[in-house]
Amino acid sequence: MMTAMVRPVSRVLRLGCVLAFCFQVLVPCGLPGAWGLDNGLAMTPTMGWLHWERFMCNVNCQEEPDSCISEKLFQQIAEIMASDGWKDVGYEYICIDDCWMAPERDSEGRLQADPKRFPGGIRHLADYVHSKGLKLGIYADVGNKTCAGFPGSFGYYDIDAQTFADWGVDLLKFDGCYCDSIQHLAEGYKQMSLALNRTGRSIVYSCEWPLYMRPIFKPNYTEIREYCNHWRNFPDIYDSWESIRNTLDWTSSNQKIIVPVAGPGGWNDPDMLVIGNFGLSRDQQITQMALWAIMAAPLLMSNDLRSISPEAKALLQDKDVIAINQDRLGKQGYQLRKEDNFEIWERPLLNLAWAVAIVNLKEIGGPRSYTINLTSLGRGLACNPNCLITELLPEKRKLGFYEWTSSLKTQINPTGTVLLRLERTSSAQFSYSVVSDSL
Ligand code: GLA
After folding, report:
1. CA 86, 92, 98, 100 torsion: positive or negative?
2. How does 370-409 read in b/e, with b if 16+ C-beta sit within 10 Å?
């Protein structure tokens, strides 16, 4: 339930107009941003599917042929991504995580896929994925072994980059296990980035560099952004509300450092979307989708698209929420405030629009209401002088035109989120809407 309280134009409102003018004039000039990896990729956050959270390191194809890490799994998921609307809304990369490799390199030192589980080899799988109009991602590790103990890329960066390029791979997730020093870690991440570039193939480079530097060393994000298209900061996501909460808490606690560095070509990666699995309630799934949109996070689903529920599918394929995630202004959102077990997050969007998410963190009781003064949103500019507010989640509905000094009352389920889009409107549009409403 929402209410708009219309008040006369005040001094505050006039101040708001001045601020809005400054914002419009100053923002396009731009403040100097961090220099990004110059490979022309990930201009908006990567979208796709990654096997890890849902399928992990299941190599037992004998007993579990449908959920082991094999070419069959990726072919089936690719088929569904192409035919069930996933590709149409932007999910493009189908990504292999750990446990695809044979235990040894070949006689020429190249990585090879496990011959039993990937009988056609990765080149063949890449051709299949490309024939569906999708892209293929693969996984390797900067150190001596992958986290699950398969061959690492240390000492083989050029060979591995070239092998991936020869196979037609389009994304590399580069993990950071079994690296013997922080120098090797940093050098390895940089060398692999340069090696990928030298192949001449467009390969999105997904790093875990900052995660493995912590807690002992402070990551240099300006440098990381020069080499990676996205980077994990925080431990692995699990299929649980606690994990989502921890990820959000970490992000908001570190937002001063990590938010400014995100932008076209380089993004903070809070890990996979676990929507459509077992651990999150409907409201918690809404919270993950809404907040991953606000955080400009890569949208890499880890679920079983062969058996996903219609509700989870609709949420993951919600074009309006995806549009916020993919917004071309390329600015990551942030937590505006936290009070009484509510968190308010906001994200600036193209054309001076804003996305606002209100999360109800209280895990006891029923839906709670929260009233927000619109002057407090978007640095005072989101609704200046007026705005059209649309609720995107949990329901899609136009809430109408609001004045800058009015407020909005929302009702939010425990652990759920209300996601709003605010579009600034002129006074003329607002007056017209008031007149036409009263007719
Ligand atoms: C690490 C990564 C995960 C996954 C596993 C695979 O834990 O952070 O995302 O890739 O390794 O072993």
Report:
1. positive
2. bebebbebbebbbbbbbbbbbbbbbeeeebebbbbbbbbe
148 lines ligand 1 (CB under 6 A): yes
Residue with structure tokens 């991440």? 189
User: 54, 153, 175: which to mutate for ligand 1, most atoms within 8 A of CB?
Assistant: 175
- Which residue spans within 316-396 are E strands per DSSP? 334-339, 342-348, 354-360, 368-373, 386-393
DSSP E strands: which ranges in 113-177?
A: 135-141, 171-175
Select from 174, 112, 113, 103 the least CA-distant residue to 143. 174
**Dihedral sign from CA coordinates of 301, 305, 310, 313:** positive
Residue 253 token pair: 């606690």
Q: Is the CB of 208 within 6 Å of ligand 1? A: yes
Rounded to two decimals, the pTM is 0.91
The amino acid occupying position 86 is W
**Which run of H or E residues covers position 407?**
strand 407-412
% of the chain exceeding 90 in pLDDT: 87
Helix (H) or strand (E) segment spanning residue 268 = strand 267-269
Written as six digits, the tokens of 219 are 């990551």
Rounded CA gap, 8 and 19, in Å?
19
Sign of CA dihedral 244, 250, 252, 258: negative
Q: Are 22 and 68 in contact (CB under 8 A)?
A: no
Is 69:96 a contact under the CB 8 Å cutoff?
A: yes
**Strand pairing report for 47-50 and 93-95:** parallel
Over the stretch 63-108, which tens digit does the pLDDT of each residue have?
A: 999 999 999 999 999 999 999 999 999 999 999 999 999 999 999 9
State whether the beta carbon of 147 lies less than 6 angstroms from ligand 1: yes
Q: How many CA atoms lie within 13 A of 288 on its CB side?
A: 33
Distance CA 245, CA 220 (A): 25
- Reported as type and span, the H/E element at residue 411 is strand 407-412
Q: For 328, what's the count of Cα atoms within 13 Å in the CB-facing half-sphere?
A: 2
